[in-house]
Structures are given as C-alpha cells and as structure tokens.
Design goal:
Blueprint (H helix, E strand, L loop, with lengths): L1 H16 L1 E2 L10 E2 L1 E3 L2 E4 L5 E11 L3 E13 L2 E20 L2 E15 L4 E11 L3 E11 L4 E14 L4
Antiparallel strand pairs: 1-2, 3-5, 4-5, 5-6, 6-7, 7-8, 8-9, 9-10, 10-11
C-alpha cells in the first residue's frame, strides 16, 4: 500500500512538472499541465488514472474541477476525461476575435472527448457562453464549432443578455 501511494505521488509530481505542447481543448501549445487531487490510482487497464477528492487539472487557458475524475490516455493528451462532482466544472479561456472568449460548463457529470472536441454535460447542466446561459438536464457542446444541443424532461432554459 505504501509503495502504491509513493508511486501515485511520484506520477503526480512528474505530471505537474511535465511540459507539454497540447491542450485537451484544442491541441494548442499551452505549457505545463498541472493535476492535483487528494488521491490518485492507476487502473488495472493501462492508460487509465483515477482521482478522488478535490481534483483539479489545469493549464493557463483551461481548468477542470470535480470531486472525482477518470483520465483515459496520457495525462498530457487525454483521449477522454470523465468528471463527477457537485458540480463538476470545465472552464476555457481563449483568444477570440481580437479579445478573450470564455465558456464555463457545470454539471454533476461531465465527459470530454478530445478527438471530437465534444463536451457532454448531464444531471442538471449549465453552459455559460459569452452573453448566453443555457440550462437543461443534458447539454452537448462542440468546443471546436461552438455549437450546442440541449434537452431533457424539464426542457431547456436559455437566458440572453440584452444587447446595447
């Protein structure tokens, strides 16, 4: 048990210091990825890491937060990240039209597929875009095309800020 704990701490230490040229959001060179959690363990299946308690995975441009997380693939270029929390959070800030664009997604469950840039929010989700807030039981958001689809038993609520 002690050996496994030391191994997990070593892996986390290396991940924090590992410079990368990738982003789960858009494969742009973003610098170092930092991962922290109360506990980390490697799955029996290769390339799967489980994190529990105060999970944070971030770079300068994006941040993932949750109570629990599973990272599939290499941590610097994950194939998929699954977050569970109350709520789990996915935040991206990026250059857009000469300025900074941000979006924030929150839900009890969030799944991110890097290959398709698809974000799936479920269990009562909120997606905050520039001047728009979408609330629904389920929301799918394509990060690359910046398009969403929402639905569920309680329907969809969209709030749009007034334009001056």
């Amino acid at each position: 048990m002690l050996k496994a704990g030391l191994w997990c701490l070593s892996v986390l230490y290396l991940l924090v210091l590992l410079p990368v040229m990738a982003s789960p959001a858009d494969d742009v060179g973003l610098g170092t990825i930092s991962i922290s959690a109360d506990e980390a363990s490697e799955d029996i299946q290769p390339g799967v890491l489980h994190f529990k308690g105060h999970f944070i995975m971030q770079t300068h441009y994006w941040r993932l937060e949750s109570g629990q997380a599973t990272v599939y693939g290499k941590p610097d270029r994950p194939d998929k990240v699954y977050l569970e929390g109350s709520p789990a959070r996915f935040l991206i800030t990026r250059d857009k039209d000469g300025g900074q664009g941000t979006f924030e997604a929150t839900a009890p469950e969030i799944e991110y597929q890097r290959s398709t840039s698809l974000l799936k929010l479920s269990g009562g989700a909120t997606l905050k875009l520039e001047d728009e807030v979408i609330r629904s039981m389920v929301i799918e958001y394509d990060i690359e095309t910046e398009r969403y689809q929402a639905g569920g038993e309680d329907g969809v609520l969209i709030e749009v800020a007034p334009v001056d």
